[in-house]
Amino acid sequence: MKKGLVITMFSAFALSFALTSCTDNVVSDLSADEQLTAERRFPQAPPAGNVYLIDNDASDNHVIGFDRGADGSLSNMRTWSTGGAGTGGGLGSQSAVVRYLDYLLVVNAGSNQISAFRVNGQNLTLTDVEDSHGMMPISLTAGRNMVYVLNAGGNGNIAGFTLSSQGDLTYISGSSQPLSTSSAGGAQIAFNSTSRLLVVSEKATNSLSVYSVDNLGVASAPTTYPSAGVTPFGFDFGRRDMIFVSEAAGGAAGASTLSSYKLNYTGTLDLITGAMPTYQSAACWAVVSGNGQYGYLTNTGSANVTGFSISPSGEVSLLNSGGATGSTGAGPIDAGFSRNSDFLYTLNAGSDSITMFAVGADGSLYNLGELTGLPNGAAGLAAE
After folding, report:
1. Which of 3, 54, 95, 231 has its CA 20 to 30 A from that of 61?
2. What is the pTM of this model?
3. 3-class DSSP state of 251
């Protein structure tokens, strides 16, 4: 059921949330009356961009889109059918929704498909729906007019597609490759800056797998490296192919960590900062600002965001000594920056909401409010 959407400044509701693993299979603590009667306090601003997610509906998956105002506010909800089905519950992944060139790419984890939309201002047009060449697609990445998908179901695998100028997806023969084991628990797939290398985080094996991609778009077999911390989950690339990885520590309270690596052009990984404590719980999603100077982890079990600074050589340090940089709604999962990194958005599974932050020049976060009333089970977040 689609609930009424409202926006509040500095939510007046006391949220409590406990979580022992990274997933969005959680139940909102907000009553329907609270969600529907909260005051709308943002003035309308001219659209400066968009924010997208999927409702992950098990019968008919939809993209949900919002106008992003110049002040960071979200308004004017719109929906488009993906032509596929979701799971109705948590995906346990990062990058289920990806913005690339003129396209929006999304997973349909319940029907084993991926969908492509052409973006035209505030409107989307569905251009293709294709089999994911695996089971339960949960994460996407795009580069060099290619799309790769991480399939988490069955034995787990990756598969590649070309993306034409018309928005057609075509499977790349020979591109399907396994994960390191048949029970790897893949969480995210991402291209490096040249789209010649792919990285997959594996929760169950505590590993990062690297694949090279040839001129035809065909991925190699994986080379797998041990993670510095336990339960590597989300990650993002910064400057010069440095990778910043959240480590959820199996969801143990206060035990999350953060590691950074250098991905070399040969596909080898060098550790820079290993398993730095963040003192928060279930750090699962990671994003890095456009200038590469700051990054943020969403802590599903702590209902907050951890900010960290990044040195030119990739060392990381906490922006706040206790690891809590900004409070969110309950159960934050996916996160994304606006195109200029002036605003940060978190999707909160426990309160079916989006928290909006302005990002300071020093990396500090200023809470702009919360948009509530999202469908339970919503997943992914891409902002621009």
Report:
1. 231
2. 0.91
3. helix
Q: In residues, how long is the chain?
A: 384
CB atoms within 10 A of CB 218: 16
Nearest residue to 220 via CA among 178, 187, 282: 178
Token couple for 56 = 């992950």
Kindly state the tokens that stand for 58: 């098990």
318-373 pLDDT tens trace = 999 999 999 999 999 999 999 999 999 999 999 999 999 999 999 999 999 999 99
Residues 298, 242, 162: CA angle, nearest 5 degrees: 85
Alpha-carbon distance 190 to 157, whole Å? 14
Fold of 6-10+14-383: Methylamine Dehydrogenase; Chain H (2.130.10)
Q: Are 199 and 263 spatial neighbours (Cβ–Cβ below 8 Å)?
A: yes
Residue 21 CA to residue 42 CA, distance in Å, equals 34
Dist. CA 261–CA 218, nearest whole Å? 25
Domain ranges for the chain, please list them: 6-10+14-383
